[in-house]
Structure formats: structure tokens, C-alpha cells
Amino acid sequence: MGAYGDLHARSLADRESFWLEAAGAIDWFEPPTRAFDAGQGAYGRWFPDGVVNACHNALDRHVDAGRGGQTALIYDSPVTGSKRSYTYAGLRDEVSAFAAVLQDLGVAKGDRVVIYMPMVPEALVGMYACARLGAIHSVVFGGFAAAELAKRIDDAAPKVVLTASCGVEPTRKVAYKPLLDQAIAAASHKPDAVVLLQRPELEAELTPGRDHDWAALRAAAEGRTTACAPVAATDPLYILYTSGTTGTPKGVVRDTGGYLVALAWSMKAVYGLNPGETFFCASDIGWVVGHSYIVYAPLIIGATKVLYEGKPVGTPDAGAFWRVVSEHGVAALFTAPTALRAIRKEDPEGREAAKYDLSRLRALFLAGERADPPSIQWAETLLGVPVIDNCWQTETGWPIVANPIGLERLPVKLGSPTVPMPGYDVRVLTDDGQEAPRGTLGNIVIKLPLPPGCLPTLWNADDRFRSAYLEGFPGHYQTSDAGFVDEDGYVFFMARTDDIINVAGHRLSTGGMEEVIASHPDVAECAVVGVADPLKGQSPTGFVVLKAGVDRTPADIEREIVALVRDRIGPVAAFKTALTVQRLPKTRSGKILRGTIQKIADGEDWAMPATIEDPATLDEIGDALAARR
């Protein structure tokens, strides 16, 4: 670990010089003279005297440097059959004009704007326009439930809401306007205005006096320009809500300067991308991955990005991603392990990938859930490029642990996303706060301060921030992940701490069992939860999705899985039950809803998760459990 090891050590020992040097990669209106002020905020603030603008760094500075004719954004929508491209200059002009629209609606520096839209270029235009004015955007998934949207409207108190008439799914159209109207009716806070983008697939009626037609306002602003507002590096760029354990969403605050610096560093060092190359992040702008690596990071370094409105399978087939990679000359693809598993399930032999020229693809990156080794090995064989796992959170904004292939490609250890990135002092602590021995399962924490780009607090909830993240292990940020660090410093994230189960006094990782189950040749994906057991406390139960084309009986495969877990982990796991289901319940980002599965299995009361992709999958879990009982 030569180059990486030296850099990581320096980032912890001399954070001032390390991060001031990294800050030179972005444009400042007033460059910071200090990297960190430990006396501000809950644990300190980054670049406290710097003045900057995120939209200027993503667009204007590249136009000013003579690169305005380069393609900045490629919109590829197989669900609507639409494709569009924008140059840096064209996107800058579009954003500048739309910022004037927002100004006319009263939006100014520090105001909030909620963006409730599908994966269309206008959603990004709205985000950049907010950043241009110094306003704070808060993106909520298009089609999100009205009650959950109302909570976010009340918390953020937006002056304006940007929306579209509908979202387009492979098999249906989702009307957004009725959901937004219900949310505004239920919310205590009422926005001054709604700007609605009419989509030809399903148009919506405007509410007189409040709603405005996007196209009409934009046409009236043709030719208008808006300057980039100087904002303090510590000013919020956006609020991104993540589910809270109390039912009240947590508004993660992202400050501007530290975020830009961290993204610029990570785009080159972690993802190995250069200016002018094309990056395809197959996420959604409703998630942190979309904010960081669709919206901001590629443009900050002057790359080209793909905005994809579709699915990994079904739009039209399991070759959807490979078609995009080939057609647009993608150098790096970033997706979730669950997308990879979906492709593998539908096309285990990789016949769809063989149809496309993937010669310009240098690496595949995974994040969002634990990347199971069989899927990584399958993709490596299929693509012939490195498949790199990385692990992070909404709260951190960029990878905690990764393999920095743009700096030094480290040996891959299956099951580990590799090593901590600069600024992250990752520790593993026992429940009583002591350092756990290497290789021992414990609580993964980050010694404070967090590096640039991570949340400084929660929106209007400083006390909640401290209690949720800082008080469990004083002096450390609590990730709520369980895992271990091996003798080489590689970090293994085994489960959320809620997913560590206690079987007859033994603390066991459900992630370790899932890794074993996923190695079975007929298994596409799986989830293991701890089910209440009157004798042992909890007993593990596995839910398994089989690959397409498997013609053996599920009962035979389930028996083999039980034997496999008992052989690899041992009788201590007490693994006796594997259940075959057609699909696993997931969030829209692809995370498996293990907590909800566990409640169903235990017969507890449960609420429909706000971010669930398909509620019918929960019925399938219940049916499988009932059939086995």
C-alpha cells in the first residue's frame, strides 16, 4: 500500500495540508486559508472561510476554460424512447435561464426548493439552478407516497416545489400530481408555487393560482442569465432525507465546499475517471449516489455523464446497461449489487453482454448493499474488467471504504470493499467502547472528525444529530454497521448492527450466512433474518430467489442450502430454514428490506416502508412463511 498508505496516513496526521491541497482542484471565489475549524458545529467545520458555488464548479468554469462544446449530459430513456445530449455551454445556459424563473418566483439564497421529479434532464436543471442561486434543494423520489412527501415538505419548508406530471415505469405510468396535491393538503407548510413539467405520456391539470407550467415559464425566460451566487463553504447545498427510526425522516445536510472537494478527489482517485471521459452511474437522483455521482462529481472534473431512465432488466432486457455502455462509450459504470444480481438472474450466461462492444469499459463499481462474492466473480468473468466494491452512506456523501484504482489499485479481497479513504479513521469497537482485536466482529465507527463531504448536522435537528450518531461511542461517528478489520487493514462490512442476530448466546452475522447461500450455483440473491425463537432467542431464516431457467425443485435446493450453511459456518449457526420466493422486497435503491421481513416473520406489527419498490413482494414473503408453517 505505497501511494495509498502514505496518503491515508497523511490525511489523518496532517489534515490541514492534505485537504487544503485537495481544495485546489475546485474553483473558489475566496480560497480558504484554513481547512478545518474544530470549534464550530458538532465536531468541527471544513473550509470555514472559503467562498464557492457548486453550479459554477459543475458548469461555468468549464465553459470559461473553452470547453463549452464538450458533451456534459447524455439523457437515455428506454422507457420513453427518448435521447438528448447537452453540451457544457448549452446546459449552463439552460440552468442560468431557469434560475431566473426561480428568482421570479421569489427563490433566493438560503430558501429551500423541493424537487419531486423522475429521471429527466429538467430535474438536474432544477438542482443546478438552486445551487446557482445559493438556494437549498431537497430531492424526493418522484412517485413517493403522499404522506412521506408531506413530512419532508413540513421539515424543509420549501418556497417552491418542482415536479412533473408523471413518471414512466416499464409497465405503467405513475401520476405525480395527485400525490403532490395530497401531500401539500396534508402538510402544515404550504409552498408559494409549484412548477410542473408536462410529460406527453400523461399530462396533469394545474391548480390555478399556485401551479405554473414549466415550459411556459422557461420560454418566457429565454435569453436571460443569472450569476452564480457566492456562498460560504459551510452553507448547505442540499438536504437529503433518510428514514428515521422514529418515523420522522432525518434531513441530512450537505455543506457546499467540503462536498465539492471530496467529490473532486474521489472522482479521480477512487473511480479513475479523467476529464472528457463518460461515466454511467445507474442510480436515481433521489438517492445520495445519484446526487454525488450523477449530478455533481462527473461535471466537477469535466467528464460526461449518462442520465438513464430505465431499469437494469425489462427495458427491454437484461442487456440494457451493456447497450448504454457500448452506445455512449462509457469508461466506468457504477451500479448497485442488486442490479447486477437482477441481470445475472435473467441472463446467467451473459449472452446479452456478448451482443455489445464493451471495449471502452475500464471498471465496474458497486455500492448500496454488500456485494456478494459470486456476483463479483460472475461480472469479472463476463466483462474482463475490475469489479470494485465501495461502501458509504447517505450521511457521508462519498465512499468511506473503497479501492482507489485511480491512485493505486489494491488487491481485491472478496467480501471487503477494501480500505478506508483519506480522512476516514475507521475503527471497530466492542459494545462497551473498547477497540476490538483484528478480525473480531464489532461496531464499525469513524473517529472524529469526519472528513470533508460528510454531514455536519441534520436539518433543524442538531440535538438529534448528536444523539443518533455521536453519543453511542463518544468521540466517534456511529455507522450502525457491524464488521471487522483484518490484519491487512481491509474493512469487512458484515451487516447493519440491527442484523446481527443472537443465536443461543452467539453473535452471528446474517451477512456471512448470505455470502454462503449466494455461493450456491442456483441462487440469484438471498436475504437472511433472525426470527424469534423461544429456546435460542433467534434462529436464522433464509429467503432465496433462484436464477432464471433453474428446473430443479425448490425443496431440493433448500435442503442443499441448509447443508451448505451448516458446513461452512457450522452447527452454531443453527440454520435450518431456507424459503424460496419469486422476489425479495427492496427499496427503490435496491436495498433489501430485512427489518420488515423480520417483523413479518415474527408476527409483529409493521408499516409499509415509504421507499419500497413493489409492496406485493411483502405478500410473497408472508405467503412463503405461511406455507412453511
Automatic annotation (TrEMBL):
UniProt xrefs under SUPFAM superfamilies: Acetyl-CoA synthetase-like (SSF56801)
Domain AMP-dependent synthetase/ligase stretches: 65-447
Start and end residues of each Acetyl-coenzyme A synthetase N-terminal domain: 4-58
GO molecular function: propionate-CoA ligase activity
Tree of life domain: Bacteria
Domain AMP-binding enzyme C-terminal span(s) in chain numbering: 513-591
Family: Belongs to the ATP-dependent AMP-binding enzyme family.
The protein's name in its UniProt record: Propionyl-CoA synthetase
Gene: acs
